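User: structure tokens for this one?
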Amino acid sequence: MPLPFMPSRRGFLAGAGAAAVGITLTGLEGCHRGPPGKRINFYNWDTYIGKTTLKDFKSATGVTVDMSLFSNNDELFAKLRGGNQGYDVIVPTNDFVQRMAKADMLEPLDHAKIPNLKNIAPEFQDPPFDPGRKWSMPYTWLVLGLGYRKSKIQGVPDDWKWVFDSPQYKGRIGLLAEAGDLVRLALKYLGYPMNTGDPVALKKVEDMLIRQKPNIAVFHDDNGQDLLLAGDIDIVIEYNGDIAQVMKEDRDLDFVIPKQGSQISSDCLCIPKGAPNPDLAHEFINYLLDAKAGAEISQTIRYPTPNAAAKALMGADYKDNPVIFPPQSILSKCEYATYNGEALSRQYEEIITRVRAA
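Assistant:
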């Protein structure tokens, strides 16, 4: 029987005590506009911050950060499409940086107010999705692959077919709910360019996923690692950092990027149009790019950092971990998602809506 729809992205802060770091789970309920210069509102993924980051920022600046959570980029975009509801800093993924910039939903960044940009590795300073870093600063980079329970899976599942095109693990498979990611990975498996809008290719993706639907246990909002850890599923599309988190708790879990390659992404720090406190937003972004602060974040969330100064402070269990930093031989087969217009983005969403309704 399919598992129920799961609304959260990651599970760490649930155990740590969300209230301790000023988090609300339902948008800006619980956030405050407060006296100018005293509070900012941060819209972030679940468990995507260091254990003491927000407290340390307040100690350093006197500014309280109220962090609320979204579960996927589609939700973030929908929340801000009708106008900014009071957010100062948001964390969209690279293709949504493009999408939101083209929709006039972002403020351009003042690099003079972000001197810690110098800490960022050169390969992340001028990305194709945001030349010159006009709209975004790099927070993490990440790659999708398959998390799996070794005792339940035959061999290493280094092929997307095990989740897209096979009944072998019927009822034990978890797919991402985010439409664009799911469609692009299916295109990759079928041998098409990952960012294509070819209607023939997209129809093949839809037909394949509808055939596979009876074998799927859950379409998850990036909490696949929790479902895997709990034993609810045995194989799941998930991000490397998420699986790295739970591998520390369960040695029966592992992660692989399938041989066809995958989608590489970068979650970014942006200031949404109409941010109430743009100067403080710049200050907060600059703080997150500090070497020590960046290392504290990476130690908690276990995602690969683009911050070279932060990485230099990390131990070998992080820097040399092949799940967190996969080998270049497989990363060379991975591609960034690109935003190719609103019509195609909505087409992706419609495809996955039909698949889930099938």
